[in-house]
Design goal:
It is a single chain. By secondary structure, the protein is mainly β. 0% of the residues lie in helices and 46% in strands. The chain is built from no helices and 10 strands. The chain is elongated. The two termini are 24 Å apart. 18% of the residues are buried.
Length: 106
């Protein structure tokens, strides 16, 4: 398993593909397959069967997985997707920061 630069709850921006330029919150991360699921991005049609009596089936929009290499963490100060660096504070804590402007991303 590899370690990803994206965590659940991050706001990210898509840098390539059909959803290029769109941003959203990360719902799930799969480090084994190196994929992420982003809220409201890469919507796919999913056919759903009714599971209980009286429940309706049909075609539903659902978020599809995107490769993690195609997204960057969004920096609110730079207003774009940026790379992440690890910054050590005076008390020894490590935080993720924007590689361009140095703004903390937590």
């Amino acid at each position: 398993m590899s370690k990803l630069h994206i965590k659940t709850g991050d706001t990210v921006m898509v840098i390539s593909g059909n959803s290029k330029g769109s941003k959203g919150k990360v719902v799930a991360v799969d480090p084994k397959e190196e994929k992420v699921i982003i809220e409201g991005v890469n919507l796919v049609k999913k056919h759903v069967k009714p599971r209980r009596q009286g429940q309706a089936g049909g075609i539903v929009d659902a978020e599809g997985a995107i490769r993690a290499c195609k997204v960057n963490v969004y920096c609110p100060k730079c207003e774009k997707g940026v790379r992440v660096k690890i910054k050590t504070l005076e008390n020894g804590d490590k935080v993720r920061a924007c590689a361009k402007c140095g703004e903390d991303l937590q």
